[in-house]
Sequence to fold (559 residues):
Amino acid sequence: METEKIRKDFPILSRTMSGHPLIYFDNGATTLKPQPVIDAVVNYYTYLGANAHRGDYEMSAQVDSAYEGARKKTANYLNASCPEEIIFNSGSSEGLNQVALMLTQQMLEPGDVILSDESEHASSVLPWMHACKEHNYTLEYIPLDNEGKITVENFKKALHPKVKVVCLAQVSNVLGFTAPIKEIVRLAHEQGALVVVDGAQSTPHLPIDVQDLDVDFFVFSAHKMCGPTGVGVLYGKKSLLDQLEPIFYGGESNARFNRCGSLILKDTPLKYESGTQPIEGVLGLSAAIDYIESIGKENIHAYEMELKRYFIEKGKQLGNIHFYNENAESGICTFNVFDNGQMIPSQDVASYLNTKGIAVRSGTHCAKMLVDVLQVPGTCRASFYFYNTKDEIDRLIEALKEATLENCINIFF
Amino acid sequence: MSEIDPKLLRDIIMDHYQYPRNHELTNEEGYLSKHMASDSCIDDITVQVKLDQDTIQDVRFDGEACTISTASTSIMSELVKGKTTQEAKEIIQNYFSMIDQKEYDEDLLEEAVAFQNVGKQANRINCATIGWKALRDMIKESEGQS
Fold:
């Protein structure tokens, strides 16, 4: 990993925060953008400019070519069987809501069960919770093991013939554990259940092969993998996407309609892309895929694990840090800081670190049900990406060494 | 801006965080109660107030909260107990003015001046005001009923 060279691609890394060089450890929330992604977005506005799929002029054709090229690239990135399985949308949350609405309105029967778990992000569980209130469906949870992770054994216990949909994250955004998706999908399919996977925290870090995993739906957001905000992908198996009807209707998704209500939709995937899409975002995502593939996901994952092990080793030596997910194979480190045996509220630690130029996340990280599992009101989360360095971790360790309750309150004076 | 020694102000916050006052809810009748859940952090507290005509007889609170929200609510509870709702409203208004870096009457706020710089960490303004907003809302509600 040529980190020093890579860091030069990220102009934002030259800024300061609270008067210190920026150390950005909140990559689980969003990632920083390299110059090629920024250039791709700017190029759309300074050169391409037109809408997609609409104009009879050269500019528009160039946009079409770039936009559909991004679809092909994304299909390859996930190893989808064809580009038509890639729907561009605003991100993982929209994708998960789309799938929940389509399945609950068009496929499920009263009494059916949706299976999820208590480590889920709000985006993968709330759409189902809401749908269950409106229809007569039940939401059930896969029990987590004592570390807070999903195991095949526990999934087997939770699975039964009434389960028609399983929705879960490939990598948990709080604890960073990787769920055994391939085995879960195999077992779910044996029972006739569909599997929806939230790939927001896995796609930026791990190689993804939707055909090998055999998932029915898969979502991710561009901004967590160096791409623009407000754009993401819903992958669906072509047969399912052909069978289902969209949630949103409008321009570009239809071929013909008349006053009598007769409507002919376009084919998959365009029937799912009503209205003008975030074109600059899609082109930025395309550039982000190129950038990440030039480094290689295997390299990214190995390097993140190296950083995580380094942080945990140094952090444990301090004696005032408790880690909640040492064994998780991802760059997500969840911890709390103690002062004389008393836990310092995570938000006080995060605010203190801010004064040292260090960005970490605090609180429940949108996974509010996990609080009951971990039995702490909140945690600090440092999440690493390939542009982070051991030097930065050293500075985090230096800061944590002095993170007493008194110093956390001193920041206000 | 107060000229008080910052160390003293810090100690006030430390003391109210580690030994919060009025930090127990009650099931007794006659209390108004307001649950406040911050959308930006772990703060999830309930504040209770007992009013006798126009006098604040008791204020209590409990819940999950960071140092700033615990200490600020604790200080508030001591400050307004025994005051009239009119006096409490004036204190609350001055406190919000202080948080917003506007002019305020330091004498009215007593220990609450410890939060005069909370805006230095912009995201923590919520923490310093969550309990105060609960009391403000309950006083407003009680006035609506009378």
User: Anything to note?
Assistant: The helical segments of chain B are 6-18, 67-80, 85-99, 106-109, 125-145. The first helix of chain B runs from residue 6 to 18. Residues 43 and 66 of chain B are 6 Å apart (CA to CA). DSSP finds five helices and three strands in chain B.
